[in-house]
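For anyone still unconvinced, we reproduce a single protein record, the chain in one-letter code, the fold tokenised, and leave readers to judge:
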Amino acid sequence: MMLQSSWRTKRSRDMTSDAGLASQDTDYTRDIQAVLDELHQMQQTPRLVTSPEELEALEREIRQRTDRLGSLLVGSHLQQALDAAALQAEQEQLVRQWPKPLKNDGKVQVRVRTAQGLAVPVWVTYYRRTGQRRAGKRYAGVYAGLVVLGIYDRCTPALAAEVSLLAAMLGSLQEAQDVLANRGVALDPKTVRTIAYRYAARARLVQQIDTTTFEDTVTGRRVVISSDGGRLRLREPKRGPKTKKGRRRYTGAWREPKVLLVYVVDAEGKRDATFVPVMDATLKGPDAVFALLRTYLQRLEITQADQVLFIADGAPWIWKRVPLLVQALGLAAQQVHELLDFYHAVQHLGQVAALRKDWSAKARARWRTQQRRFLLQGQVEQVIAAVQAICRGRNSKAIRTQRDYFIKNQSRMAYATLMAMKLPIGSGAIESAVRRVINLRLKGPSLFWCRASAEAILLLRSYYKAGRWKMLKQMATSPLALLEA
């Protein structure tokens, strides 16, 4: 009995400790009233401030008290919720759905950190796996009541969402930690990283198993789908002895994360602001990104769309998978259009002209402009013939390669038809997505990522930049992540 009591005391400790937090035996009514009395005293005796420094100190003192009041109020409401019969029924139902049998091990006290940055103690039922206990060890269990409320890693959903959002939107985890510290939330870098990466991992797992459809609808609308790759460097283990400092060696290999984008355009071909784009990214390769794309399109009920346009550069990994995706989704042939990005095609025209070393700069520009006009008019055969006509001399092999590029993508160059339909002919949207999601956060000098860390930031940043953070929060706080783990 004494052993069980000491173990419970140890288990109830939080992973972090803070000075001035609520005591273990908090009387919320008493402590809330004490803070209210302090604030009332400050109201009754105004402090004369005569400098910016004094005003800042006053604001900081008031914020510390209001943050403490907010944390105590959250703790009080949280404890009442955990004690309520309705939530206890929900946690019992969650336990019954658990993959492995769990046993009620009684109530223990745990600390939950609130959005105000302070930790409050609450009593919650702990469920452990049934089975023989081994000396000094316990089988993994769960605080089911906290899971029902979306509390993971001893953080309220609001705090976990804020930490993860800052990790995604700022340039580094250190910047996220600094912003939180300025707001009065003191978290060490390891805790910031743990919260953000686990948040992303739960969201990704729920995304894979959840089958609910989107609130957005593409019924009767014109949908544009695009994909492209970026670049970042991964820390990959390197064979050999450790360094003199005892560190493992690694290589900084360049890898290409793949980004997908789905958006809607209006009758004039401009992005429809009433539809929030769908954006995601992964390092797992072409098949993985197209599997993600298929999932998203199925949940959007893409077969109900009026027109579906696939637009991208000439990367073979994209175009050889598009027909398979169209077939898997059950899209009708008259619904679907495949288009090579016009500006990539023009870039190849410039490369052809540059290979003619005997031409002047003005001749190259004139030839490129003429072929560009033919492309816009839908006369791709004339462009191919023009490239074929200059396919001679010392650079003929390189020119033939460019000619083959136009021949291979000829069916995807119906620019005149698509412009008449008021559909976009450029893939600038996906180029911008790659820059905002990858280049501005994960790519930089001396910046190397572990694969799991990069995957987490790719997911968080994709949803943040797309404007679907609310959806990510719902996935990250769902109990499905633990039920399927």
Summary: Confidence is low (pLDDT under 50) at residues 1-25. DSSP finds 20 helices and ten strands in the chain. The beta strands are 102-113, 119-129, 141-142, 222-229, 232-237, 250-255, 258-265, 278-282, 307-312, 336-340. The radius of gyration is 29 Å.
